[in-house]
C-alpha cells in the first residue's frame, strides 16, 4: 500500500482477512514471509502489538475492545500512556470532541460504552485508533453495525485521512460501498490472494464472483402464504418498556404477525430496536401491555416464550448470542435444556446425541471449520453467526425474532440466511425482522413498519428506499 490510499480487502467469511490484518497488527505471528513498514523490514519473530503501535499501525476490530464501564474519553486515555500524574477528564473530553468533529463521527462522550448502540461503539473504536496516531489504519468491517446514513457520514472522514497521507485498509462485505470509497480492491479466497485491481475496474457482480469462486444465484421470494382470516401467531398489544435512553423507550407498541409472513421493522440504531428485541426475548421487563402467541397471553420471561415456540436471534452475537470459551457444540446447546429433546432426552445431557446434532448443523449450515469442538471465539464473524442461526432454526420455531441477522456476513452467507428466513415463512411460520439495513427489510418483508423514537409508524405498501429513509429520520413521521 502507498501512503494516501484506501484499499478494500474483500473475501468470504473465513477467507483469512482478519488473520492477515492481525499479523500486520502484531496480534498473530506469521509462520513465514516478510513485512515492511515505511520501507523498513520488520523482524516478524519479535514483532508484536507494541511495536505495531509504535510504527503507526492501528486496527479497529469486528467486535468492540472498549471497556464497557468506561466513557469514550476514558477508553481513549486508557492504555495510551500517561501525561502527568492525574487524569484530566475535561482535557480528554475536549481532545476527543475535537477529533470526532474533524472526522464527522458523532459519539456521545459522557455515556458509558455499555449504554452505546453498536454503531456508536464502532465509531468510538475508530476514534481511539486515530487518537493514538495511526498512519496505517485497518478497519475490520467498520460499517457492519452502521446504518446507511452513518456509513455515508463516516466516508468523508476516511477520505480526509487518505488525503493527509494515511493508508486505510477497509474490510467490508458490502460491495456497493467499495465503489464510492476505495482506490484499489484486493480479494482473498481460502487464504490466498486471487485478485488485486483498481476499484474503478470492478463491480459488485465481478467482486462477488471473485470472492465466492462462482456466480451468486438470485434469491427467490414466493408470494406470501398467509391465509385469509387466520389469527395472528404473535400479537403485541400496547407494549411499553424502559429504554437505555429516553429516545429508545418503547411507547404503546402494537403489532400482529400472521402465519406465513415476514414483518420488517426498519429503524435507525437507538430508536428502540434493542428494547423491542429484549422484551420479545423475555429479558427486559415491560411496564405495560401484553404479548400473545396464537391468542394465548404469555407471562413475561424466557421460558414461556420458548415453550410457545418463539425463537430469538440476537442482534449482537458477541454480547447476547454466543459465549466465547465454549465450543460450537456447547453454543448450539444454549437455551436447549428446556425444550430440545435431541440432546436432553430425559432432561439430562446426552453428549453423543449433542455431538451428532452439532455435526448435522455444521453440515447443513456450512459452518467452517467443521469442528464441533472448536472454540466459538476462533470462528470468523460470519461462521459464528451461522452457529447462532442454526441454534434458533433447528428448533423449528413458530415465530422467529431476528435482529440484524446478516450483520457481518459475506454475500453468500447472507443469501443463505435470507433463504432460511423465507423457508420458515414458507412452512407457515412468522418472522419479525428488526434490521437497520433498509435493503434487507425491503427485499424480505411482506409488510414494513418503522420504529421511530420508540413508536411504530405505519409504512405504506410499496414504499421505496428514499421515502422509508425519510420516515426513519422523522421527516415524514
Average residue-wise pLDDT: 85
Computed over alpha carbons, the radius of gyration is: 23 Å
Q: Numbering strands along the chain, what is their spatial order in the largest sheet?
A: 4-5-6-1-7-8
Overall structural domain count: 3
Instruction: Briefly note the CATH topology name of the largest domain.
Output: Rossmann fold
The largest β sheet comes out as: 6 strands, mixed
The rough form would be described as: globular
Percent helix among the residues? 25-40%
Distance between the termini: 46 Å
Structural class: alpha/beta
CATH architecture of the largest domain: 3-Layer(aba) Sandwich
Low-confidence spans = none
CATH evolutionary superfamily of the largest domain: P-loop containing nucleotide triphosphate hydrolases
Q: Helical region count?
A: 17
**What's the CATH first level of the largest domain?**
Alpha Beta
Q: Percent of residues in beta strands?
A: 15-25%
Which helices and strands, and how do they pair?
Layout: E1 5-10, H1 17-24, E2 36-37, E3 40-41, H2 49-54, E4 57-60, H3 72-77, H4 89-103, H5 118-131, E5 136-140, H6 148-163, E6 167-171, H7 175-181, E7 184-189, E8 192-198, H8 204-212, E9 234-241, E10 250-257, E11 261-266, H9 273-281, E12 288-293, E13 296-297, H10 302-307, E14 310-313, H11 317-321, H12 328-333, H13 351-365, H14 381-393, E15 399-403, H15 411-426, E16 430-435, H16 438-444, E17 447-452, E18 455-458, H17 465-472
Parallel strand pairs: 1-6, 1-7, 4-5, 5-6, 11-16, 11-17, 14-15, 15-16
Antiparallel strand pairs: 2-3, 7-8, 9-10, 9-12, 12-13, 17-18
Helix pairs in contact: 14-15
Amino acid at each position: 500500500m502507498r501512503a494516501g490510499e484506501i484499499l478494500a480487502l474483500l473475501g468470504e467469511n473465513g477467507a483469512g482477512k482478519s488473520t492477515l490484518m492481525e499479523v500486520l497488527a502484531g496480534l498473530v505471528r506469521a509462520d513465514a514471509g516478510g513485512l515492511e513498514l515505511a520501507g523498513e523490514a520488520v523482524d516478524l519473530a519479535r514483532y508484536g502489538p507494541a511495536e505495531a503501535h509504535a510504527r503507526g499501525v492501528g486496527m479497529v476490530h469486528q467486535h468492540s475492545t472498549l471497556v464497557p464501564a468506561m466513557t469514550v474519553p476514558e477508553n481513549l486515555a486508557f492504555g495510551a500512556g500517561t501525561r502527568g500524574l492525574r487524569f484530566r477528564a475535561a482535557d480528554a473530553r475536549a481532545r476527543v470532541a475535537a477529533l470526532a468533529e474533524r472526522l464527522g463521527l458523532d459519539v456521545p462522550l459522557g455515556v458509558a460504552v455499555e449504554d452505546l448502540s453498536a454503531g456508536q461503539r464502532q465509531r468510538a473504536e475508530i476514534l481511539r485508533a486515530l487518537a493514538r496516531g495511526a498512519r496505517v489504519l485497518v478497519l475490520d468491517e467498520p460499517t457492519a453495525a452502521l446504518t446507511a446514513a452513518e456509513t455515508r457520514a463516516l466516508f468523508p472522514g476516511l477520505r480526509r485521512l487518505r488525503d493527509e497521507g494515511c493508508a486505510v485498509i477497509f474490510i467490508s462485505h458490502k460491495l456497493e460501498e467499495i465503489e464510492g470509497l476505495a482506490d484499489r480492491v484486493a480479494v482473498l479466497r481460502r487464504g490466498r490472494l486471487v485478485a488485486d485491481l483498481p476499484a474503478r475496474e470492478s463491480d459488485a457482480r465481478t467482486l462477488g464472483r471473485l470472492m465466492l469462486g462462482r456466480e451468486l444465484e438470485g434469491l427467490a421470494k414466493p408470494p406470501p402464504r398467509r391465509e385469509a382470516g387466520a389469527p395472528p401467531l404473535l400479537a403485541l398489544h400496547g407494549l411499553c418498556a424502559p429504554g437505555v435512553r429516553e429516545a429508545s423507550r418503547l411507547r404503546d407498541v402494537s403489532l400482529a404477525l400472521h402465519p406465513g409472513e415476514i414483518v420488517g421493522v426498519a429503524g435507525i440504531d437507538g430508536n428502540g430496536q434493542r428494547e423491542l428485541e429484549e422484551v420479545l426475548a423475555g429479558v427486559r421487563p415491560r411496564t405495560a401491555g401484553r404479548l400473545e402467541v396464537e391468542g394465548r397471553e404469555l407471562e413475561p420471561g424466557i421460558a414461556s416464550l420458548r415453550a410457545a415456540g418463539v425463537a430469538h436471534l440476537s442482534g449482537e452475537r458477541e454480547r447476547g448470542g454466543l459465549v466465547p470459551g465454549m465450543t460450537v457444540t456447547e453454543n448450539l446447546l444454549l437455551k436447549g435444556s428446556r425444550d430440545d429433546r435431541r440432546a436432553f432426552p430425559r432432561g439430562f445431557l446426552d453428549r453423543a446425541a449433542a455431538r451428532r446434532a452439532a455435526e448435522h448443523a455444521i453440515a447443513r449450515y456450512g459452518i467452517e471449520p467443521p469442528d464441533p469442538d472448536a472454540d466459538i471465539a476462533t470462528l470468523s464473524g460470519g461462521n459464528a453467526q451461522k452457529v447462532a442461526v442454526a441454534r434458533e432454526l433447528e428448533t423449528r420455531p413458530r415465530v422467529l425474532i431476528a435482529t440484524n441477522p446478516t450483520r457481518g456476513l459475506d454475500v453468500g452467507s447472507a443469501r443463505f440466511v435470507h433463504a432460511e428466513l423465507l423457508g420458515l415463512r414458507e412452512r407457515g411460520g412468522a418472522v419479525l425482522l428488526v434490521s437497520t439495513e433498509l435493503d434487507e427489510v425491503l427485499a424480505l418483508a411482506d409488510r414494513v413498519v418503522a420504529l421511530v423514537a420508540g413508536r411504530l409508524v405505519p409504512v405504506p405498501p410499496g414504499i421505496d428506499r428514499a421515502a422509508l429513509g425519510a420516515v426513519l429520520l422523522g421527516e415524514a413521521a
